[in-house]
Amino acid sequence: MTNHDWMRRDLEVLWHPCTQMKDHEQLPVIPIRRGEGVWLEDFDGNRYLDAVSSWWVNVFGHANPRINERIKAQVDQLEHVILAGFSHQPVIELSERLVALTPAGLDRVFYADNGSSCIEVALKMSYHYWRNVGQPEKRRFVTLTNSYHGETVAAMSVGDVALFTETYQGLLLDTLKVPSPDCYLRPEGLGWEAHSRQMFAHMERTLAEHHASVAAVIVEPLIQGATGMRMYHPVYLRLLREACDRYGVHLIHDEIAVGFGRTGTMFACEQAGIRPDFLCLSKALTGGYLPLAACLTTDAVYQAFYDDYHTLRAFLHSHSYTGNPLACAAALATLDIFAQDDIIEVNKPLARRMAEATAHLVDHPHVGEVRQTGMALAIEMTADKARRTPYPWQERRGLAVYQHALSRGALLRPLGNVVYFLPPYVITPEQIDFLAEVASEGIDLATRTSVSVALSDLHPNHRDPG
Ligand SMILES: Cc1ncc(COP(=O)(O)O)c(C=O)c1O
């Protein structure tokens, strides 16, 4: 069976996520036969370096022997068990380790099975907390512009992806949106810290005015990922923590994308020296193997639900696969690798290499910015370097980079005009150089010509390379 055979069968029956399926009249679907380390291999024997960690989940490579072993051992013991009324060793051990690993005070772990559901848990828990403590009027959520928190209905509501919020407007919760501290948009001459600090004034005003009706503020700490890897300074998080305390509002950190070393520290909140009231984790939690998410919270929140049965104050949320043992085993193996191999330290020279390998792009006539936080590096293509004008989405410049990279053996999947690297941590310095070379060529190609808008009937999408 070749790529073509599998693609034909695929297109007969599948509907792919966040995809305009008509695109596949021109773009091949790439069926993957096997993975090893940073590499994915298709049925024709082509290899692709997975520069985006397969939607940011993979940290220690595909088919990692240490994670494989742990899952194999677990599957012979217990594949799954209901988590209500029952428990199991991997979920208990994982909870203990997450509590120990995260900032002091996050003492309770509630599980879901994907990132969006984890956001639903945090939002519901915050809302329900205020109800339980006799302040039901605190029911709204404050969120940043340009944010992304997933694609279930409440998660979309607290996000700010225009295509989603316009399309699904009729379904969404009413939220309060505050301008993002996104440093790409800072005035010339202003540093990240000063800009992030200045932008906090908007948040302060919103909380001052609305705190009586607000349950929580939700943010993607340090990097707004899906909307273009836009970044900001940790000072914003510190100011936000102080303000949430002052105004009696919860702080939800969505570290689903940035947790587990992506920002250079195990968790982004460490860089601000703060503890959120809810910490949402998923993606890299299982090393990219199995769906699992964890919402950590404080004892104060937990105690607001802890009461006699007939008070009906218990938290109302469950998923069939909550705390699945195989996923927990994969997570335990992942945490072992972080600890045993001192990954946060090991990543530092890799992050420097990403910066060095792409430094020349700063002078590219159509690159507005090369930005980096830890192991996330983004290169923003722009139509006008001086004004940082974006290319019209209809031109799909990112798609040209994506296609070029595939032809060179790399899975680089830009977010609109933003080419980025978010690689597995098992990448080598030489592989980083290779990615930088492929990205440079792709950016040259994509920005050199005027691109025809043959696919202009398609919508811009945050998670496709449009
Ligand atoms: C910051 C953030 N929150 C939530 C999600 C949603 O996670 P999932 O795709 O597992 O539902 C994502 C996914 O990209 C994300 O980046």
From TrEMBL:
InterPro entries: Aminotrans_3, Aminotrans_3_PPA_site, BioA, PyrdxlP-dep_Trfase, PyrdxlP-dep_Trfase_major, PyrdxlP-dep_Trfase_small. It catalyses: (8S)-8-amino-7-oxononanoate + S-adenosyl-L-methionine = S-adenosyl-4-methylsulfanyl-2-oxobutanoate + (7R,8S)-7,8-diammoniononanoate. It is found in: Cytoplasm. GO terms for molecular function: adenosylmethionine-8-amino-7-oxononanoate transaminase activity. Its EC number is 2.6.1.62. Pyridoxal 5'-phosphate binds at G115, S116, D254, H319, S320. SUPFAM superfamilies: PLP-dependent transferases. The record marks C18 as: Participates in the substrate recognition with KAPA and in a stacking interaction with the adenine ring of SAM. Pfam families: Aminotran_3. Keywords: Aminotransferase, Biotin biosynthesis, Cytoplasm, Pyridoxal phosphate, S-adenosyl-L-methionine, Transferase. Pathway: Cofactor biosynthesis; biotin biosynthesis; 7,8-diaminononanoate from 8-amino-7-oxononanoate (SAM route): step 1/1. It is an enzyme of class 2 (transferase). Substrate binds at W55, Y148, K283, S318, R413. Its cofactor is pyridoxal 5'-phosphate. Belongs to the class-III pyridoxal-phosphate-dependent aminotransferase family. BioA subfamily. Catalyzes the transfer of the alpha-amino group from S-adenosyl-L-methionine (SAM) to 7-keto-8-aminopelargonic acid (KAPA) to form 7,8-diaminopelargonic acid (DAPA). It is the only aminotransferase known to utilize SAM as an amino donor. Homodimer. This is Adenosylmethionine-8-amino-7-oxononanoate aminotransferase. It comes from Pseudomonas benzopyrenica. The gene is bioA.
